[in-house]
Structure formats: structure tokens, C-alpha cells
Amino acid sequence: MTKLTHKQEKFVLGLIEGKSQRKAYIDAGYSIKGKSETYIDREASIIAKNPKVSQRYEQLRQEVAEQSKWTRQKAFEEYEWLKNVAKNDIEIDGVKKATADAFLASLDGMNRMTLGNEVLANKKIETEIKMLEKKIEQMDKGDGGTEDKIRQLQDAITDVISSE
User: Fold this and answer.
1) What domain of life does the UniProt record list for this protein's source (predicted)?
2) At what angle are helices 97-141 and 72-93 packed, to 10 degrees?
């Protein structure tokens, strides 16, 4: 990695913190005395486009993204740990509001994580059923026989369920 100047490094860190280029430029210590806003914006843009600076920004951005990864499994394990600690405290010290709240919150979190996908799947199936009902209405307007309509509906519902 190419070494950045102190100001360039502070500029990049400002961008990583979510600051605008202008704010990062000012906070990095670049001279703004007597400079117009247009000048400051232009200079900040030039620094941001500097290959060394943009490379460092991308490197730090990837590091932050990697650190912030929070898998569903890790989250579930944290809920499970909280549940077990709270349950243990309840067994030892009896029911207290804080431990009971922690226990219930962990169960709620675990349930939401587990049931969240099922809710989405159910909504998808409900939407597809509504679409099929509309197709049946359209078919009713045609000359097709009732048995054909029922068979088509059964096939469509079977397809929806088997795709889940």
C-alpha cells in the first residue's frame, strides 16, 4: 500500500465515517481560509479521485464491511446465549423483571428470526393464490368447462406449493 500524507489519511477516515467530501476535507486540516465553497468542493473532489486516496478508501471500506458482517447464525447464537443466561439467573435468583425481560426478548428475537422467512413465504403464496383466483375469474368469462378449470387450479396450486 502506498503511504498517504497525514491529511489524506484523515480525509479518507472522514469519508469512511460518512462525512461529505467537503466536511472530510475541512476536518482533515486543509486550508480553507479565504477559499470559496466551489474551490473547497473542487479540491476535495480532486483528493478523493487521487488513486492512492481512492485505493485506501476502498481498502478501509472493505475492512469495515467485513467487520460489520453479522450472520443470522451469529445473531441466533447471541439470542440463545442471552436466553440461557437469563434462564439460569431465573432458576438461581427467581423471577426478576430484568431477567424475565431478557429471557422473553431473546425468545422473541429467536422466533422472529425463525418465523420471518415463513411469513415471507406465506405472503408469497397468498399473493400467488390471489393471482390464480383472478386467472380463474378470467377463465370463467371464457367457454372452458368447470372440470378443466378445477384441474388447472389444482395444477397451479400444486406448482406453487412444490416450488416452496
Assistant:
1) Bacteria
2) 140
Q: What is the CATH number of the domain that holds 44?
A: 1.10.10
**Distance separating alpha carbons of residues 4 and 13, to the nearest angstrom:** 12
Asked if 156 and 133 count as a contact pair (C-beta separation under 8 A), the reply is no
Co-location of 61 and 136 in the same domain: no
pTM of structure = 0.46
Confirm if 38 and 18 have CB atoms less than 8 A apart: no
The string of pLDDT tens digits covering residues 95-108 is 777 777 777 777 77
User: What is the C-alpha to C-alpha distance for residues 27 and 57, in angstroms, rounded to an integer?
Assistant: 16
Task: Report the 10 Å Cβ neighbour count for 138.
Answer: 9
Whether residue 79 contacts residue 104, with contact meaning beta carbons closer than 8 Å, is answered with: no
Q: Number of folded domains in the chain?
A: 2
Q: Which bin fits 88, alpha (ψ -120 to 50), beta or left (φ > 0)?
A: alpha
Rounded percentage of the chain residues whose pLDDT exceeds 90: 35
CA 99 to chain centroid, in Å, comes to 29
- Calculate the alpha carbon distances from 33 to 7, 10, 16, 38 in Å: 16, 19, 25, 13
Domain enclosing residue 82, as ranges:
72-163
